[in-house]
Design a protein that fits this description.
84% of the residues lie in helices and 0% in strands. The chain has 4 helices and no strands. The termini are far apart. The model has no long low-confidence stretch (mean pLDDT 75).
Length: 74
Amino acid sequence: MQSFIPNLQHFFVAASDTLSPAALIGRAFKFGHTIGETRQKRRVQQALALNRMARDLDASQPSLAAELRSFASR
């Protein structure tokens, strides 16, 4: 149990670094992309993930799958 807590803390620190605006700007400059390109790429990745989740839930929960597809299209 003692090793679980520090690992969980490292996970949240990494997640907060990934989702922070400063990390987004730093990543854009690091790879030579504009912030708009980076945001657009992230949106496409999120839409693909939502569509993948919708495809997995299509047989068991069609209404939830439809909601996920509507979120992906926005």
